[in-house]
Amino acid sequence: MTSILDILPYFVTSWILLTIAVAVFFLVNKDPVLKRRAWKPIVLVVCGVLAGFLVLMGFYISSVVVAIIGFVNLDKVRICSACGTMHMPGSLFSAPAKFCSKCGSQLD
Ligand SMILES: [Zn+2]
Is residue 1 scored above 80 in pLDDT? Predict the structure, then answer.
């Protein structure tokens, strides 16, 4: 039986590395098409890895929360097709942005 303390270093390391990798990808990459294409797989992989670790550590409710956060990200975050700017909702209950705040293009 593995304990939480056995898994925790791998969980924290994975979380930090995923955060850095995703941040670098979205900050360095200037291609809006690639950003839009990569968004859903990235959210699914990150949420899957984090939820998997939480389940391994016995935090089943937390893994459900991670799944809900992933669903909200897929549903509400928009990436501008023209300039690649990412638009996140102001709150969980905010509607997704309809227009890009940087270039004014319509977001779909
Ligand atoms: Zn834009």
Answer: no
For the whole model, what pTM was predicted? 0.86
Position 97 in a domain: no
Structure-token match 């998997």, residue found? 52
Distances (CA, A) of 96 to 43, 47, 60: 17, 20, 29
Contacts of 71 by beta carbon, 8 Å cutoff, 6+ apart: none
Amino acid at the residue 7: I
- Flag whether 40 is in a domain: yes
Q: How far is the CA of 107 from the centre of ligand 1 (A)?
A: 8
CA of 98 to the centre of ligand 1 (A): 11
Any domain includes 105: no
